[in-house]
Design goal:
This protein is of the alpha+beta class. It has three domains: 2-155, PAS domain (Beta-Lactamase); 213-308, Orthogonal Bundle (Helix Hairpins), CATH 1.10.287.130; 320-465, Heat Shock Protein 90, CATH 3.30.565. It has helices at 2-57, 61-74, 97-107, 149-201, 213-264, 268-308, 323-341, 361-378, 408-413, 433-443; strands at 78-82, 85-89, 125-133, 138-147, 320-321, 344-347, 357-358, 383-391, 394-401, 447-452, 458-465. The strands form three sheets. A five-stranded mixed β-sheet has the order 6-8-9-11-10. It has a four-stranded antiparallel β-sheet with strand order 2-1-4-3, sandwiched between helices. The chain has a two-stranded antiparallel sheet with strand order 5-7. Helix 4 runs parallel beside helix 5 (213-264) and helix 5 packs antiparallel against helix 6.
């Protein structure tokens, strides 16, 4: 946007400079042409008067002397036709075509004392002429070959001066346009950044109030609105967390009563109904646990965005760690569950040298564990592969399976809270696992990417920027499970 506005202003500034410079240069050319024309017309009139006297006296010696003196002084040729004789000086030939044309017009008592406008880089000379004689008879004509080299040199000097001034003016205008553009657009760019920050984090810093008055008022209004939205979102998250936490007590009491009730039941039908109630209660507890984890993950993600923007969070930034031992530990913990589901866990060897990430170990373990549990739960009997790889400047922690996978449309929705695939409606779950992983990845500067595995299945990748090496980290090895 800045470049577009600056481009338009720059073009307008250059057009203004061009028009002003063109007007000044045209005026300079006209002025020098007029000055030269007046000067040479005066010389032409004086020579015509001397030629008229010579025609009346019949003595052309004085006329020739005047012509030679003028030509020697100005370097310009002269042709004078006095009745039947023709006098020349300065090397101007009477046979030259423009001289012949001038003499022909002079016989008709026509004068030609106008000069064409000077051009700085043109060359050549122009002739001016006038007849002399009485009102009833033309006695002769004077033709003067005007050399404009000196005038053209003056014009070039003026062009140079105007060019330098135009360049300086254009520079001043362009710098001014850049400053005005920055002054006007800086609040707009801040607003744009604030909107994106508010969209990502639900929070934003107070916007500086500068720029035009209208934009200052807009910044104040947007800051107030953003604070209201941030407070509302924070209150909503806190309400969800508090509600989930408070519900644990009545849910726990309800479970205790159901357990006591089961001791009093007599018939198989009553026991079956009680078991269904306990199953629903288990699902409620699972959802409450997921909501609490999601609230904590969203809070951590918000802290991560604040640190990226330069504001401190409650948690200290994570130190560089090798994700491979963390993934290895989660593989070992998931092994019994995988065995029950008929899945085979495969852990690739560690990258060499170790790839480091800036992530909290507990949160990395939570993310890896959630992805492993998902793969085992939704792809029973499949091979679940885990790996840590370094791809250019990105460290990838990948959990993939060769199960049925998810179509592209479902992968796009998989990280949406409470979303579950219609094909997995019979499998216990809350639809919050991928959402929690995505929020925790964002909190640690990474991102969750879901893709199709080869040849089939689902690949879940957590991508982190490479962290700076920590000399205190021990070397680690790998294992297969």
């Amino acid at each position: 946007m800045r470049l577009r506005v600056l481009g338009v202003l720059s073009v307008l500034c250059l057009v203004v400079v061009f028009l002003i410079s063109g007007t000044i240069l045209t005026s300079a050319s006209r002025e020098l042409t007029q000055e030269l024309q007046i000067n040479r017309a005066a010389s032409l009139n004086r020579l015509a008067q001397v030629a008229f006297d010579a025609a009346n006296d019949g003595d052309t010696v004085r006329l020739q002397r005047e012509m030679d003196t003028y030509s020697g002084l100005y370097g310009e040729g002269i042709v004078v036709r006095v009745q039947a004789s023709t006098l020349v000086s300065g090397g101007l030939s009477a046979e030259r075509q423009d001289v012949q044309n001038a003499l022909s017009l002079a016989r008709l008592n026509v004068s030609g004392t106008s000069l064409k406008p000077l051009e700085p880089f043109s060359s050549g000379s122009q002739v001016i002429f006038r007849p002399f004689g009485s009102a009833s008879q033309v006695l002769g004509a004077v033709v003067l070959d005007v050399h404009a080299d000196t005038a053209r040199q003056k014009l070039r000097e003026r062009w140079l001066g105007v060019g330098v001034a135009a360049l300086a003016l254009a520079t001043i205008l362009l710098v001014g346009a850049a400053r005005v553009t920055g002054w006007v657009l800086r609040p707009v760019l801040r607003l744009d950044s604030a909107v994106h920050e508010l969209e990502r984090t639900g929070r934003m810093e107070r916007l500086p109030e500068d720029g035009p008055p209208e934009l200052r008022e807009l910044s104040r209004s947007f800051t107030a609105m953003a604070r209201t939205v941030s407070a509302s979102m924070a209150a909503q998250r806190q309400l969800i967390a508090d509600t989930s936490h408070q519900l644990r007590n009545p849910v726990g009491a309800l479970r205790l009563r159901l357990d006591l009730l089961q001791l009093e039941l007599k018939t198989a039908r009553e026991h079956d109904a009680a078991e269904r109630a306990v199953a629903e209660l288990d699902r409620v507890e699972e959802i409450l646990d997921g909501v609490l984890k999601l609230a904590a993950a969203e809070h951590r993600a918000s802290e991560g965005y604040l640190r990226a923007a330069g504001s401190p969070g409650e948690h200290l930034p994570a130190q560089p760690l090798d994700p491979y031992p963390v993934l290895q530990g989660e593989i070992e913990r998931a092994a019994p569950l995988a065995e029950q589901a008929g899945c085979r866990l495969v852990l690739a060897g560690p990258p060499q040298p170790p790839a480091l990430v800036a992530c909290h170990p507990a949160e990395l373990a939570q993310m890896a564990g959630e992805l492993l549990n998902n793969a085992i739960k939704y792809a029973p009997g499949a091979t679940v592969a885990a790996a840590v790889r370094l791809e250019q400047d990105v460290v990838v922690v990948e959990i993939s399976d060769d199960g049925p996978g998810l179509p592209a449309a479902e992968r796009a929705s998989a990280a949406t809270r409470f979303w579950r695939s219609p094909r997995h409606s019979s499998v216990p779950g809350t639809g919050l696992g991928m959402t929690i992983v995505g929020e925790l990845a964002s909190a640690n500067g990474g991102r969750l990417v879901l893709a199709e595995a080869s040849p089939h299945g689902l690949s879940a990748r957590i991508e982190f920027p490479v962290a700076a090496s920590d000399p205190a980290l021990p070397d680690t090895g790998g294992a297969n499970a």
